[in-house]
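Inputs:
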Amino acid sequence: MLFKILSKEEFRNFIDFLLKDTEVIAPKQINVNADGKAIYQFLPVQNFEEIRLDYETTDYSAKTYFLPYKEDLSSCSFLGTIWDREIKYRIQPRAIVGLHACDINALLKLDKVLAGDRFPSPYYISRRKNTFIVGIDHDPCEGGFCQSVGADVVTHGFDLYLTDLGDRYFAAINSNRGFNALQQVKTREPTARDNNDYLEVRRRIASQFKPLEVHNLPNLMDIEFESKVWKKWADKCMSCGSCAMVCPTCYCYGVEERITMNNAKSAKIKQLYSCQFLDFATVAGGLNFRPDRETRLKYRYYHQHRGFVEAYEEPLCVGCYRCGRVCLADINPPDIIQDLQTEYQE
Amino acid sequence: MKYLGIKPKRPKIAVFDFTGCEGCELQLVNKEETVIDFLGSVDVINFREISSTISNDFEVAFIEGAITRDDEINRLNEIREQAKVLIALGSCACFGGVNRLKNAYDFKKANQEVYGKQHKETLPARAVKEIIAVDLQIPGCPVDKPEVERIVQHLVWDVPYQFPAYPVCFECKQQYTTCVFELGQLCLGPVTQGGCRAPCPVGGSGCWGCRGPAADPHLKEFLQIADEREFSRKEINERLSFYSGFEGML
């Protein structure tokens, strides 16, 4: 990895440079909650002042800039005797500034599924390749357990990654375009003191996490397949699907066809869906092999913490805790995993 | 024009109003960009808001409004006899709607308060399905025009329509809405039938349940989370009863 040092003033110039010809997405404060706590969201910004790099977390992940909630896969026009099909990919350049390590790790996991050798998605790849990513280190967010699932540090999947050293940023460069973009502003090589300060900040961040016991979790889950823990938590689930909507890695979807009222045009629409919805596993003939909340909640956790590990040797969950925060019934991974561990010990 | 070898039907439709505000009927002629195609895909043979032609030779009947009078029951029975498909349109027709709130009051006093000396005959407000068999219910106050369009498309192509199985939260989240609960307000989104595109919570006022219960609603947990957030049972029950979609479930 290449490292550079840039002052805060130069970083501001860097953002101005990006804003010249690129859509810039960054954390913005949009509201305060009932307790007076700021609510942030990844949104397009027009100037540097709107960006809040000190944000703790966002309610919604940045996933939908790569996997929109709704997307037309293709559209058709009826031309009298034949159909004319059109497929569009989003290729306009975009920059996302201020992603935390968990959210970049989430993209790396999505890359494995959607940009790997098997069935790569051109819709995802065109958005991913055309997005310039600037990440930033931060102190742990409330509830976050990214360290326990190995997502608190990130070594690739971004163009630049910043660590705040007070008056300057320590910037890790991970791409040619990241390197070239930094040429637009004044940077310098890190000194021994910069390196030392950087490592010190990293140590400070790492020391603040409360570890969650995830040792041997896939096997533990196999053993606890019939555990009453699943029913205990599923009894609270309202099947609203919000967990999957805010999750930075949930990628399950459905496809439906829509035709215009004059029957002249049709579209094949992909829509992100949730495995917690009653009809998620409904198949032809009306049969539903996950009709109860318990099975649906259980399989959500099995996909995240067991199935994905078998396929890709890492969990799908990045520990961002957005699902725990959004859930009105307070269903959350740390408590469920803790319950499973306790059950096992008993 | 044929699609997959199927020739579209051109159902003869009629729209009838009972006790309601006619807002749902207005929705049928709303959405200017597609209204010509919408009305052109069917034969409108009895719909007083758009045509003075009146015929009783209809196949599909849309019923708007709750049933609150004896003469309405007779009229409804006649429509049922003629209609091959009978559709309850809007929350009043589906559940009794806001009209049903009166059922909790003394009718004499209510009549006095609203009509003074001009007393009106009235029965407890009921949903259409409580009187006759209903083939399809399209809830909403008012109904969502894009949803009505899709349903009519299904009638035209003779394909069964499937209402969404998800609650309002799904489409609310798709619009990056800050959860109304997070802002300290009550919302029926988690237990209410989705498909409306969540205009109320997106607009910041919380869901009032006009579309009635979602598939397999978890009311017990909903009451629990509302209690935990210290909403009074009175407020919660008033909200759940407002459109009467949760009648019999509380």
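Residues 136 and 162 of chain A are 5 Å apart (CA to CA). Flag for discussion at group meeting.
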